[in-house]
Write a structure and sequence with these properties.
The complex is a heterodimer.
Chain A (H helix, E strand, L loop, with lengths): L3 E5 L3 H13 L3 E5 L2 H11 L3 E4 L8 H10 L7 E6 L4 H10 L3 E4 L8 H8 L13
Parallel strand pairs in A: 1-2, 1-3, 3-4, 4-5
Helix pairs in contact in A: 2-3, 3-4
Chain B lengths: L1 H39 L7 H31 L5 H32 L8 E4 H18 L3 E6 L5 E4 L1 H18 L5 E9 L2 E8 L6 H4 L15 H4 L4 H11 L4 E5 L5 E8 L1
Parallel strand pairs in B: 2-4
Antiparallel strand pairs in B: 1-3, 4-5, 5-7, 6-7
The chains are: A alpha/beta, B alpha+beta.
Chain lengths: 133, 273
């Protein structure tokens, strides 16, 4: 069964360039553009990983992350922040709130994103087999 | 016929590959340049405001550039694995973001001319109502997509007079795109033009989120963003209103901003007849 990645991103351009390679590698990608609706969608979809921007309409990515990690139903879902705002304060907060990783959009080569995600999910994206031991 | 189609597909693919390589190289070079500017700006002796200006400019250019770079990278590496729809989506993103970058560069150039006192307009004898109708017709399509009503109330009590139609279209474009961004679905934008003595007063009023009094003064300052700019798409350069003000003042007119009660904001500018 395909792993689910929920992508909270309000910029259509960034959503497209990062979702295309993920879909090509067999991930199911769910899109949420509105920060205020993200938490409901995460609870409903129970994704394996959440990719999240910081500047979002309705609710910031850092606030969504904090709420996820305080909720028993979503605290174990892996979260990666994907943003253009790489100041120290944001990175510090993301780590403090429990993000797995923090990527700068302009440093990530889209075709290499599935590999990074696969490592975080402990699998190889082509086979979907979980790497153990 | 079939062999013709195959050659057509091959020719398109080669062209696509060449475009992708060129875009990828250029965007990589530009991104490196932006990194350099960002690193250098701290030691340049620039004032705080100027540093903010450079930082904002770098940030605004970097976002569309990242999308262009990412899309061209995918087309270059995975073109054979992408379906037609994905190729179309990525090429559309390259086009849209290239246009966005061109608009930012044009805005920066305008602001630079304003700052150095070299900003000029080209007045010709034209009909303002025609200019307003044309611009509103273009933006009506965009407003409709968002479920917003765009109304036009024109005063036929003035004929043609001397103004720069292209620059007034730029003014209307900035005001209307802002109004569409900040007006929720079901809202209304009203454009009106009335004659008062020797002036025409043009108003663009929306029923959007409005701007708090404490932030109204920031609206015409370069790279300033009010608290209503929360979406990435809504951020923009913050240069649009600076240019709007400069264009109106170059016509010897003036611009002001007021609350549009019960909700929203209205921009009112005058042009002398």
């Amino acid at each position: 069964m395909a792993k689910k990645v929920l992508f909270v991103e309000d910029d259509e351009g960034f959503f497209n360039i990062f979702s295309v390679p993920l879909k090509m590698k067999g991930y199911e990608v769910i899109h949420v553009a509105d920060g205020a609706r993200a938490m409901d969608k995460i609870l409903q979809e129970k994704p394996d990983l959440v990719l999240m921007d910081i500047i979002l309409p309705g609710m910031s990515g850092l606030d969504i992350l904090k709420e996820m990690k305080e909720n028993m139903d979503t605290r174990d879902i892996k979260v990666v922040m994907l943003t253009n705002f790489g100041n120290d304060e944001n990175v510090k907060k993301a780590v403090e709130y429990g993000a797995e990783d923090y990527y700068m959009k302009y440093n990530v080569v889209p075709s290499e994103l599935p590999e990074k995600i696969a490592v975080l999910l402990g699998e190889t994206p082509e086979s979907g087999i979980k790497v153990t031991g | 016929m079939e062999s013709y189609n195959i050659w057509l597909i091959i020719a398109e693919s080669v062209l696509l590959l060449i475009i992708s390589i060129l875009l990828f190289r250029k965007s990589s070079e530009l991104n490196k340049l932006l990194e350099k500017i960002n690193k250098m700006k701290m030691g340049t002796g620039l004032l705080d405001g100027e540093r903010d200006y450079v930082a904002a400019m770098v940030h605004e250019l970097r976002a569309p550039l990242s999308v262009i770079k990412g899309a061209s990278d995918l087309l270059l590496k995975d073109a054979t694995n992408l379906d037609t729809e994905q190729i179309h989506t990525l090429l559309s993103q390259i086009k849209e973001n290239s246009n966005a970058m061109l608009k930012i560069v044009a805005d920066i150039l305008d602001v630079s001319r304003i700052g150095s006192g070299k900003f000029e307009i080209n007045k010709i004898f034209a009909n303002l109502n025609d200019t307003l109708k044309e611009e509103c017709s273009y933006f009506n399509a965009l407003a409709k997509v968002k479920g917003i009503k765009l109304e036009l109330e024109l005063d036929e009590n003035f004929g043609s007079f001397g103004f720069d139609p292209d620059r007034i279209k730029q003014v209307m474009g900035n005001l209307l795109s802002n109004a569409i961004k900040f007006t929720p679905e079901g809202g209304t934008i009203t454009v009106s033009a009335k004659r008062y003595d020797h002036n025409v007063e043009v108003t663009v009023a929306d029923t959007g989120v409005g701007v708090p009094d404490s932030e109204k003064g920031l609206l015409f300052k370069p790279f300033s963003q009010t608290s209503s700019h929360t979406r990435s798409e809504e951020r923009g350069t913050g240069l649009g209103l600076v240019i709007v003000k400069a264009i109106v003042e170059a016509h010897k007119g003036n611009i002001r901003v007021e609350d549009n009660k019960p909700s929203g904001i209205k921009f009112i500018f005058t042009l002398p007849l």
